[in-house]
Design goal:
One of its GO terms (biological process) is dopamine biosynthetic process from tyrosine. This protein is α/β, with parallel strands linked by helices and about 220 residues long. The protein has two domains: about 180 residues, Aromatic amino acid hydroxylase (Phenylalanine Hydroxylase), CATH 1.10.800.10; about 30 residues. The protein is built from nine helices and eight strands. A four-stranded mixed beta sheet has the order 4-3-6-5. A two-stranded parallel ribbon has the order 1-2. The chain has a two-stranded antiparallel sheet with strand order 7-8. Strand 7 and strand 8 form a beta hairpin. Helix 3 runs antiparallel to helix 4. The longest helix is centred in the last third of the chain and has 25 residues.
């Protein structure tokens, strides 16, 4: 997924929530290696290759979904067990089973819905409950992994969901902040002002390029 820098890495079995989310921080998505049973083609309680390739891969090629996924991963670094559980729940109700309202219609953004015709039909019907996405509530909402969900959260947009997630994370008490460096594919730990130097230099360079692009467009339009 060269558009967003995410890479796929096969793994056997299920990872812990902490390990899975930590990989997302580095733009690495762990994929399963088996295919659902032919007796249940429309739904699988566990992730399989159909789920990964039809659900996650197309969405991780979308910059906004990729950013939201990585943001959840970055927030997991150094998080407590309780916070990991909350972040995993937020991931479940957005990246896995999230809905988005567009032109008064419900659209699926979750990979679990996109790869499950049965649950996709269920989620967009009037049968389940649809609730506006609120990280404070969503993070504490119990969920089922063995059957269709009785409740789905609906975001106004992926960008709005990311902003709400960042605001929610302000309640996390960590002795450091983290910044992802896409050039070295590493995470920088920010504890003191001097630790911001590399990130600020990258930001200045990107801002300079953006400013030049705006100036060039203004000349053409002027």
């Amino acid at each position: 997924m060269c558009r967003t820098g995410f890479t796929l890495r096969p793994c056997t079995g299920l990872l812990s929530a902490r390990d899975f989310l930590a990989n997302l921080a580095f733009r690495v998505f762990q994929t399963t290696m088996y295919v659902r049973h032919h007796n249940s083609p429309h739904h699988t309680p566990e992730p399989d290759l159909i789920h990964e390739f039809i659900g996650h891969c197309p969405m991780l090629a979308n910059p906004f979904i990729a950013q939201l996924s990585q943001q959840i991963g970055l927030l997991s670094l150094g998080a407590t067990d309780e916070q990991i559980e909350q972040l995993a729940t937020l991931y479940w109700f957005t990246i896995e089973f999230g809905l988005c309202r567009q032109n008064d219609q419900l659209k699926a953004i979750g990979a679990g819905l996109l790869s499950s015709y049965g649950e996709l039909t269920h989620a967009c019907s009037d049968e389940p409950q649809h609730v506006t996405f609120d990280p404070q509530r969503t993070a504490l909402q119990p969920y089922k992994d063995s059957n269709y969900q009785p409740l789905y959260f609906v975001v106004d947009s992926i960008y709005d969901a990311t902003i709400k997630l960042r605001a929610f994370a302000q309640n996390f008490q960590r002795p450091f902040a983290v910044i992802y460096d896409p050039y070295t594919e590493s995470v920088e730990i920010i504890k003191e002002m001097k630790d911001l130097k590399n990130g600020l230099n990258r930001f200045k360079g990107e801002l300079s390029s953006f400013t030049e692009a705006v100036a060039s467009l203004e000349k053409k339009c002027g």
